[in-house]
Structures are given as structure tokens and as C-alpha cells.
Design a protein that fits this description.
This protein is an alpha+beta fold. The chain contains 4 helices and 9 strands; from the N terminus they run E-E-E-H-H-E-E-E-H-E-H-E-E. Helix 1 crosses helix 2. It is globular.
């Protein structure tokens, strides 16, 4: 099992043995792999984060139970305040697909989503990952900023390309663009284990 990591609110430095100092008013955030029973908390979090598409609680349970190595939750005082669900496509082992990211409103702008992504990409399961992919609607400025910031930090190129049209999505959902970031140097190293 991947060790639990604590992050200081000020940076992305990981620690295994020392609790980081609290910066300002921000609490420590515990980043960990999800477990099967986290599905209900994740479902409630997405309900509080419109306009994210709400999936079934069962889907969130499955992500925690079967895809824990490529997903993460953020906790503050035992409450899940953020999560990132993703997977490595079987035919593209050098890519990590971000399916969904959510952070409670009061914990945004503190780097929680970036910490979740870095934590996952630093795991042995992502040792071959050199690209991150995701989809977002053209109007989703928060997602575009999140992935642009990640591209800058990893010195990877970012591309937006058509993926699913409004018609592909039944006519009632805005089109989805494919976001591709990379190549970048894999973030997992043996010293992370």
C-alpha cells in the first residue's frame, strides 16, 4: 500500500516522517488512497461542487475499491474535502487520465487539487506516466487553469483538441475538449517508496 503523505498548505513537498508546518490559517491536508467506503463522502462532495457531473455513489465506491492506486482523497480533520479520480488506460501505459477532480469551496486556491495529482503521479503505479489527459468543457475555466498550471510545473506542452461534440453527448451537454499535457519526466522515483 502507498504510504499516506502529508503536505504543507504552502507547498508540494512530500514528507513521510515529519509533520509539515502549518502556513497561515490553512490546516494540514492528509492525502491518501481512497477505500471502498469513501464513495458516499465523495458523492456528497461532488453534490457540493456544481457544475461537476454527479456520478452514482456506486461508481465512486468502485473507484475507491478497484482504482485506489490511481485515485486520491484529501482529508482535513477526518473529513474528505477533495478527491481526484483517474486511471491508466490499458493500451496507453504512459498516460494518466483524470476522470474527475473536486475540492470543497473553502479549501480551493490552496493547491489541494495539484497535491492530489502529484501524489498519484508519484506512486509506483504511475512509474511510466509521461502524459496527463483529461476532458473539460470550453467554459470550464477552473479546469483549464488547473491543467495549465500543471503543464507549467512539469514543463510539459498542453494541447486542447476536440473530443466529444454536443451531439455525441446527447445534445444537452456542452462539448468536451481533450486536454493533453506532456511529455514530462515521470514523477515516480524509487526514493518515493
Amino acid at each position: 500500500m502507498h504510504p499516506t503523505c502529508l503536505y504543507s498548505a504552502a507547498g508540494l513537498s512530500r514528507t513521510r516522517t515529519v509533520k509539515p508546518e502549518i502556513t497561515g490559517e490553512e490546516p494540514n491536508i492528509l492525502i491518501r488512497e481512497p477505500v471502498l467506503k469513501d464513495g458516499l463522502s465523495v458523492h456528497h462532495l461532488v453534490e457540493r461542487c456544481p457544475p461537476l457531473d454527479l456520478n452514482s455513489q456506486y461508481a465512486y465506491n468502485l473507484m475507491g475499491g478497484y482504482f485506489a492506486k490511481t485515485c486520491a482523497v484529501a482529508e482535513v480533520d477526518g473529513k474528505i474535502v477533495g478527491f481526484l479520480l483517474g486511471f491508466i488506460p490499458p493500451d496507453k501505459q504512459d498516460r494518466f487520465f483524470v476522470w474527475q477532480v473536486a475540492v470543497d469551496k473553502e479549501h480551493r486556491r490552496g493547491g489541494t487539487a495539484q497535491k492530489l495529482l502529484y501524489d498519484i503521479l508519484s506512486r509506483p503505479a504511475c512509474a511510466q506516466v509521461r502524459f496527463v489527459e483529461a476532458t473539460a468543457t470550453p467554459s470550464n475555466e477552473a479546469s483549464k487553469k488547473f491543467f495549465s498550471n500543471f503543464a507549467t510545473r512539469t514543463q510539459g506542452r498542453i494541447e486542447f483538441s476536440p473530443f466529444l461534440s454536443r451531439e455525441d453527448l446527447g445534445g444537452e451537454h456542452e462539448e468536451e475538449l481533450l486536454i493533453t499535457i506532456g511529455p514530462f519526466t515521470p514523477l515516480h522515483t524509487t526514493k518515493n517508496e
